[in-house]
Design goal:
By secondary structure, the chain is of the alpha+beta class. Helix content is 18%, strand content 35%. The protein has five helices and ten strands; from the N terminus they run H-H-H-E-E-E-E-E-E-H-E-E-E-E-H. The protein has helices at 2-5, 9-18, 25-31, 110-113, 160-164, and strands spanning 40-44, 53-59, 66-71, 77-83, 87-93, 96-104, 120-124, 133-135, 140-144, 155-158. Helix 2 (9-18) runs antiparallel to helix 3 (25-31). It starts with a helix and ends with a helix.
Length: 168
């Protein structure tokens, strides 16, 4: 199936499910769910320095794994981080202003379709209402994940289609 070979695992799962009990369709549909990636950086833009400001993603109290997408002011992807549920991750970025997007969910369909339509997709806003977080040299920016945190930052929700169709 072309969708499966192209890494569109959720799309492939839906196509297999439409076949019902035909052949190995049910088995193939289950194989579309992928193992979660290893904790850490899934992507770092070439040449992006690993110094300056530290960003800490604290997912220790969340039951779902998260992927963070970090974009610069030119809307270029700088960093993509995967943090399993119950864990945290630190990474360094050059000082600057960055936009943060979060995806989370219980089933992983690979880097193209992330957590599928059942996942949660959002962008974060800093405490002043800005879409950009200022990350200063020598300082840490801490992001705590979770949906029930009274101190949670404001967010903007996205549909699966809008999020995977091209953020920012």
């Amino acid at each position: 199936m072309n969708a499966f070979r192209s890494g569109l695992f959720h799309t492939a799962e839906m196509k297999f499910r439409t076949l019902g009990d035909y052949g190995k369709a049910a088995i193939m549909a289950e194989q579309c769910k992928q193992p979660f990636p290893a904790k850490g950086e899934l992507y770092r833009r070439s040449g992006l320095a690993k110094r300056g400001s530290q960003v800490r993603i604290d997912n220790s109290e969340n039951d779902l794994p998260v992927v963070y997408f970090v974009y610069d002011t030119a809307d270029e992807l700088c960093l993509k981080l995967f943090v399993p549920s119950g864990k945290e991750w630190y990474s360094k970025l050059p000082p600057g202003r960055y936009r943060l997007f979060e995806a989370s969910g219980s089933a992983w369909y690979g880097e193209k379709e992330l957590f599928g339509p059942e996942g949660f997709y959002l962008s974060l806003t800093d405490e002043n209402g800005s879409d950009y977080f200022l990350m200063e040299d020598g300082f840490e920016t801490a992001i705590t994940t979770g949906f029930n945190d009274a101190n949670a930052l404001p967010t903007t929700d996205y549909s699966f289609e809008d999020f995977t169709g091209g953020i920012p």
